[in-house]
Design a protein that fits this description.
- The protein is α+β, with helices and mostly antiparallel strands.
- It has a domain of 127 residues: Histidine kinase-like ATPase, C-terminal domain (Heat Shock Protein 90, 2-Layer Sandwich).
- Helix content is 71%, strand content 11%.
- It has a 5-stranded mixed sheet, with helices on one face.
- Strand 1, helix 7 and strand 2 form a beta-alpha-beta unit.
- Helix 1 packs antiparallel against helix 3.
- The longest helix is centred in the middle third of the chain and has 127 residues.
- The chain is rod-shaped and about 170 Å long.
Length: 357
């Protein structure tokens, strides 16, 4: 800035010198304002009598005219140069500002490019992480499905062993005790009573084994279908707990895929078990019906209910989580609605796959 001002002063001085050098020729163009010595002597010799004395005001007005003309000429000549100098200064200042903005813009572009590269890297890592998590979830679902399938197969094997082996042995043992009782007609009453007590305990044990085998895997589920198996499950629940239970089945296909049948039966089994343990209900209603392209199982009770907010905060109970996992493995949905003092409603919907008979 100081160099620019010095350059401006030098150029202004040169311009003033140039104006001073060219002012006489310019003034010569105005003969009524200037006079030569010869013209003055001639004017004094011929018109001495006619000399008019000028007043100070006229003298001052006459003396200021050349000065004003010179100032006007200098202004007319100097203004364009001054305008050009100021324009040059502005252009140089704009050029410096442009260079500064260009440098700042370049630096900012470099920063933004670095940030963009970092964001791209972060997004790529996050995408990779999400893909890895999705792959892990998919593997876990497959593992859970395989574990449930193996669990059902093991349940079926245990149920078959209990029913076909242990329960048959207990039945034979009960028959043997009954034959033993018939072979002891003269035995004391105390002995006969003891034998009958043993026989009753064996029958009771056989009934427990049968019920246990039915809980592991009811053969009626494979033989007569889901609707009859659920009706039998509800009847056994009412007989065992004393809670009034009702089953309603509507528009159920005859042939449904085995995984769908097993899923809904296990959901109903777990739901009734939770009701008997926690609900303190007096009435239970179980409904199975076709809804859209699937089967809907709805269980409702008039028990104590629970707080859904606390349930969600705890992450759910193990039984409800097991039900939800089973339904999700067959591409179904499970909803739970409960209010303290107003009971609980569980609704499971599973898209059915009909099997050919």
């Amino acid at each position: 800035m100081l160099a620019s001002r010095a350059r401006t002063g030098i150029i202004a001085g040169v311009m003033l010198l140039w104006v001073a050098s060219f002012s006489p020729p310019l003034l010569s163009l105005l003969p009524h304002l200037t006079s030569t010595p010869y013209e003055t002597d001639k004017l004094l010799s011929t018109a001495t009598e006619a000399v008019t004395v000028l007043s100070p005001q006229d003298s001052d007005q006459f003396s200021w005219k050349p000065v004003m003309m010179r100032v006007a000429g200098m202004a007319l000549i100097g203004l364009p140069f001054w305008y050009l100098l100021r324009r040059r200064e502005r252009e140089e200042e704009l050029q410096r500002l442009d260079e500064g903005w260009a440098a700042r813009l370049h630096a900012r572009s470099e920063e933004l490019l670095a940030v963009n590269n970092a964001l791209v890297s972060e997004v790529s890592k996050r995408i990779d992480t999400e893909q890895s998590l999705e792959a892990n979830r998919r593997d876990l679902r497959q593992l859970a499905a395989q574990l449930l399938r193996l669990q059902e197969e093991e349940r079926q094997r245990i149920s078959r062993d209990l029913h076909d082996d242990i329960n048959q042995r207990l039945a034979l043992l009960s028959i043997d005790i009954e034959m033993l009782e018939q072979q002891l007609p003269d035995a004391p009453d105390r002995t006969v009573k003891t034998v009958r007590t043993i026989q009753d305990r064996i029958v009771e044990l056989s009934e427990d084994v049968r019920r246990l085998a039915h809980q592991f895997h009811p053969s009626i589920l494979d033989d007569l279908g889901l609707s009859i198996a659920l009706r039998r499950l509800v009847d056994d629940f009412e007989a065992r707990t004393g809670i009034e239970a009702r089953f309603i089945g509507k528009d159920i296909p005859q042939h449904v895929a085995k995984d769908v049948v097993t899923c809904l039966y296990r959901v109903a089994q777990e739901g009734l078990a939770n009701i008997s343990r926690h609900a303190m209900a007096k009435n239970v209603r179980v409904e199975l019906q076709r809804v859209r392209d699937g089967l809907q199982l709805m269980m409702s009770d008039d028990g104590v209910g629970f707080d859904m907010n606390r349930y969600n905060a705890r992450g759910g109970s193990l039984g409800l989580l097991s039900m939800r996992e089973r339904v999700s493995l067959v591409a179904g949905t499970l909803s739970i609605q409960s209010t303290p003092g107003a009971g609980t409603q569980i609704c499971a919907w599973v898209p059915f796959k009909q099997e050919r008979a």
